[in-house]
Design brief:
Number of strands of chain A: 10
Oligomer: heterodimer
Mean pLDDT of chain A: 91
Number of helices of chain A: 10
CATH class of the largest domain in chain B: Mainly Alpha
Distance between the termini of chain B: 33 Å
Order of helices and strands of chain A: EEEHEEHEHHHHEHEHEEHH
Low-confidence stretches of chain A: none
Largest sheet of chain B: 2 strands, antiparallel
Mean pLDDT of chain B: 89
Number of domains of chain B: 2
Order of helices and strands of chain B: HHHHHHHHHHHHHEEHH
Strand order of the largest sheet of chain B: 1-2
Distance between the termini of chain A: 37 Å
Shape of chain A: globular
Number of helices of chain B: 15
Largest sheet of chain A: 6 strands, mixed
Number of strands of chain B: 2
CATH architecture of the largest domain in chain B: Orthogonal Bundle
Strand content of chain B: under 5%
Structural class of chain A: alpha/beta
Shape of chain B: globular
Strand content of chain A: 25-35%
CATH topology of the largest domain in chain B: ABC transporter involved in vitamin B12 uptake, BtuC
Chain lengths: ~240, ~350
């Protein structure tokens, strides 16, 4: 469904992604794991059109979408939950969700998806009239995920969904990602919590300083000696 | 539900009727039953307040709702004011005013009614807004502020130097005074309803999203630049209209009027009322306009016991002090980003009533 070929992205003179190739098959959960500065977020930002790639190709369902502007990428059905939640604090929960459906015009379908999001996150329904800025961190994360779902994406990209959440909520978020995937959405996930991500995903890429260091099915990588030592902190 | 809606409609009708009656009284249209008009000085301040409301609302759309810090308002006002004036002035008056250098042909013979002239003023200002906005809105924060400020200065210098079009530093006089309370309040209400409808639409929601977080707004599929540009275009159109009304009210304009302090005064009104609150802008525009007039008293010699104090400019000192106080106690302006509603008006009253009943 999504394919990166030798993608290179740089911030000025600093190259953050140095020739990355990966593919995300339809219906799967693919995880990018790696330390800070490995180029995970940069990769997602390049796919969603927030920054330009220096070279390489981004293909979505066979179509070359390299360096498309963000608003066009969303219309293709690629939606992103940005790092650090970034809900719109001055708008209500309901208005935030409506903005998620900004590119859509079918009112009935939007209402249906809104109901589905409320069912997935009953808490959001309770708080729909509340300003998003007044929600707790966990609720804001739920809102960010719900908002991304409102565009009815085929590919959902999530940048560190568990960052800054209490351990209980982390488990809840991962269970949710599984459910969203089972409802038919392909997921590309970035996580620092390598163990949880590897347990959840179908396939994972381990990034180190802008290149793929290792790849394979999540369960296999969990058994890999190097991964266990470097990313899971086992002796 | 329907009684609720009826109550709302009734309220609007009552408020509109009261407003129309008051305006008719103030304007002198009720003379046939022996009342009005009000004091001419007071009516003039009312007119100014309504025009300042229009200017504040339009600046609030860009600075308050979209979060783009623009300082070019004086420039757009100048464009609207000059365009409208040059179109409504009679050929004879133009000949008198342009005594240094004759006016460009065929503009010296053109003379159209006020309403179309006002609209053309708005449109020309809007065109300038788009031309400036296309490069400037790619900038952010301070850079946008500097670019728009620069634009306003360029406009002023053009007005000052293209003498065959604008009569240079001498300015224009003899602009027909068409506007009265009906014009200024009519335009004020129209602008208020228009901008309110705009910010309440999905378009307005997108503007607030851009203000809150531009990256996230982009990820929602919002064309950030297009939305900013449209807000900017609407704002410059409305500002041009405000400038045209101002020109017709004052009957004389010159380039020096449109210096930075004018923009600053509008900005101050918006901040005082609350960035992102339309009713706040209306309230603040009236407060600021009336205060600047009524505080003129302190510029006169004051008799305090045996002493006579005469400090010209004391008005501005007091005004600034009051502003500081407001900003300290209401850092987000009088209204924050909330709107004045019937509920917010009636709840303190009803609470008071309930307390009376309870005791």
């Amino acid at each position: 469904m999504l394919e990166l070929r030798d993608l290179r992205v740089s911030y000025g003179a600093i190259e953050a992604v140095k020739g990355l190739s990966l593919s995300v098959p339809k219906g799967k959960i693919v995880a990018l794991v790696g330390a800070n500065g490995a180029g995970k977020s940069t990769t997602l930002r390049a796919i969603s059109g927030l920054i330009k790639a220096k070279s390489g190709k981004i293909l979505f369902e066979g179509k070359d979408i390299t360096n498309w502007p963000a608003q066009k990428v969303v219309r293709l059905g690629i939606s992103m939950v940005p790092e650090g939640r970034r809900v719109f604090p001055d708008l209500t929960v309901y208005e935030n969700l409506l903005l998620g459906a900004f590119t859509r015009t079918d009112k009935a379908a939007i209402a249906r998806d809104l109901e589905a999001v409320y069912q997935l996150f009953p808490r959001l329904k309770e708080r729909r009239g509340q300003l998003a800025g007044t929600l707790s961190g966990g609720e804001q994360q739920m809102l960010a995920v719900g908002r991304a779902l409102m565009s009815d994406p085929v590919l959902l990209m999530m940048d560190e969904p568990s960052l800054g959440l209490a351990p209980v909520l982390v488990q809840e978020i991962f269970a949710l990602i599984k459910r969203i995937n089972e409802s038919g959405k392909t997921i590309l996930l970035i996580e620092q919590n390598a163990r949880a991500a590897l347990e959840l995903c179908d396939y994972a890429y381990v990034l180190e300083t802008g290149v793929v260091a290792l790849e394979g099915p999540g369960k296999e990588l969990l058994r890999d000696d190097r991964v266990r030592k470097v990313y899971l902190g086992e002796q | 539900m329907s009684t609720h809606a009826n109550k709302g409609t009734l309220r609007i009708i009552v408020v509109a009727a009261v407003m129309v009656l008051l305006l008719a009284w103030a304007q002198g249209d009720l003379r046939f039953i022996g009342i009005g008009p009000w004091d001419a000085y007071f009516v003039r301040i009312l007119n100014l307040a309504a025009i300042n409301t229009i200017l504040a609302l339009s600046l609030n759309l860009v600075n308050g709702f979209t979060g783009q810090f623009s300082l070019g308002h004086a420039g757009f006002m100048a464009v609207g004011a000059y365009t409208t004036s040059l179109l409504v002035m009679t050929p004879q008056m133009k000949k008198v005013v342009f005594f240094m250098e004759p006016m460009f042909e065929p503009l010296d013979r053109i003379c159209i009614p006020f309403l179309p002239a006002l609209l053309v003023g708005g449109v020309v200002s809007c065109v300038f807004g788009i031309l400036v906005g296309i490069p400037a809105l790619r900038l952010k924060g301070d850079y946008l502020a500097i670019a728009t400020l620069g634009f306003a200065e360029i406009i002023r210098l053009i007005l000052q130097n293209v003498r065959r079009l604008t009569n240079g530093a001498l300015g224009l006089k003899g602009i027909p005074q068409v506007v009265n309370l009906w014009w200024t309040f009519g335009a004020g209400v129209a602008v208020f309803l228009f901008i309110r409808g705009f910010v309440r639409s999905s378009f307005g929601r997108a503007l607030i999203a851009i203000r809150d977080n531009e990256t996230a707004a982009e990820l929602m599929g919002i064309d950030v630049f297009k939305h900013k540009l449209l807000a900017f275009a609407i704002s410059s159109f409305v500002t041009g209209i405000g400038g045209g009304l101002m020109a017709s009210l004052l009957t004389t304009i010159d380039p020096a009027m449109f210096k930075f302090p004018l923009t600053f005064q509008i900005l101050l009104t918006v901040v005082l009322g609350g960035m992102g609150s339309l009713s706040g802008s209306v309230i603040a525009a009236f407060i600021v306009t009336f205060m600047t007039e009524f505080l003129r008293v302190v510029d006169e010699p004051l008799q305090l016991g045996a002493y006579t104090i005469h400090v010209p400019g004391l008005r501005m000192v007091i005004f600034s002090a009051l502003l500081v106080i407001v900003v300290v106690f209401y850092p987000r302006g009088l209204m924050g980003n909330k709107e004045l509603t019937w509920e917010s008006l009636s709840s303190p009253v009803s609470r008071l009533l309930r307390r009376r009943v309870a005791s």
